[in-house]
Amino acid sequence: MDENAIAGLIERFGDLPDSRVEGRTDHDLLDVVVLALCTSPAAPKKPIFNLCSS
Q1: Main-chain dihedrals φ then ψ at residue 20, nearest 5 degrees
Q2: Which residues fall within 8 angstroms of residue 53, CB to CB, at 6 or more apart?
Q3: What are 4-50's pLDDT values in tens digits?
């Protein structure tokens, strides 16, 4: 994944509010969102998910 794609994902999803209990999470919300988008079964078929391909 190129740096522009990573920056785009951070810009698009970086402001999501995280309602999880602080101190009880192992991963940042942004990491979870990006992994979920890139592993979605629709990922290869949707243009927005082209950011996830290497």
Answers
A1: -70, 160
A2: 1, 43, 44
A3: 777 788 888 889 999 999 889 899 999 888 887 777 665 556 555 55
d(CA 28, CA 51): 19
Task: Tell me which DSSP letter residue 20 carries.
Answer: S
Can you give the pLDDT at residue 17? 93
CA 46 to chain centre: 15
Compute the distance between CA of residue 24 and CA of residue 43 in angstroms, rounded to an integer.
Answer: 29
Domain coordinates of the chain in residue numbers?
3-52
Instruction: Say if CB 43 and CB 49 are below 8 A apart.
Output: yes
